[in-house]
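Continued from yesterday's entry.
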Amino acid sequence: MKIDETKLRQMIPGATDDQIKKFIEPLTECLERFQIDSPIRIACFIAQITHESGSLKYVRELACGKAYEGRTDLGNTQPGDGDRFKGRGLIQVTGRDNYTALKRDLKINCVDEPDLLERPYWAAMTAGWFWNLKGLNRYADIGDMRAITRRINGGLTGFDDRMNHFRRCKFVLEV
């Protein structure tokens, strides 16, 4: 299944026309590349990225990243890693380890140039990459937004908002 600008606009009504236009092609490629290809998978994915990115407004975490400084579980072992490798992309991929894996898997030099993940194409691809890494299609297939949210967020932060987006996406996609 493919989405078009009209459907994306309906699923993410908080996004501007400019944001929809910037992200439609990268998202279309992302959905295809990472087999997010059924209405329920797309609904789950779009709901999550809508929450994580503030309706496509934020592709870089607003906080300064100090909370991630010294977080060895994220691979942040060097001074400044917290801010340098704070959340970026439509799912807010975080940490030196994830950026290193992105560099390897997507062939993008985001370790040396973290800001590359803020570009629409890479913001979408990193979201799909993370989705795939965490095996989220299997949870999407059964509409398990709790499991998906925990794997993206580490908890259930913003769960009600994610569910509101999910219900809207399901309605638009007639799931």
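--- second protein ---
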Amino acid sequence: MRKPIIAGNWKMYKTIPEGRSLVQGVIQKLTGYNEVEVVFCPPFTALSAVKDLTGGTSFGVGAQDLYWKEQGAFTGEISPLMLKDIGCDYVIIGHSERREHFGETDETVNLKVKAALAAGIKPIICVGETLAQREAGETQNLIKRQTELALKDIETSAIPRIVIAYEPIWAIGTGKSSNGTDANEVIGLIRKTVAGIFGNESAEQIRIQYGGSVKPENIKEFMDQPEIDGALVGGASLEIDTFVKIVKY
């Protein structure tokens, strides 16, 4: 049985004091609630503070990106060893905003996945299509290709430590969201793609989230679907009560 995972991607929001307040509020309201794995993904600046607050709890901490080298002359980048030193459990890789604004490619996603796994950090790999690609009927081929390239040369033994997030780009920060049936179909395709590479047992172990304007009003629609194992939540993770409602839906 796959345990649902709800990850809050704060993006470029929250100072350290604001982040502390948010985490403290969420922990207070969810203490003893263990049916879902909850992960906070703050900006780099707040990672240590959030890790301090989650120490000794079941709450996880994730970064929003990393570089694939352990160290070197790469000004402005953060290495997997630095994230491990902070105590990061997870790292988001290949988010559509990274792909769109910062030149992320399927090849660099794969390098980052390998680097995260080597450092003992669990990757949350994002895949998704634009509205133009969706309307052109390219969704299935694109998602299959992104999944295959992200997992290229990954050991089968690593699959249980990987999370994949299907985030249709046209639904991120737009207020639009996919419906449960469509999201379930695409996530089923991702699972089938994993099965084709690593076998059915691995495909049944990997957790696959939906991301894209997730909120308390629609979380049930997605979580009722058999293939969907959780959500990668953006804006709705920035408010205590909203995020708690999503986790408890």
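The chain has one domain: 5-248. The radius of gyration is 17 Å. Will compare against the first tomorrow.
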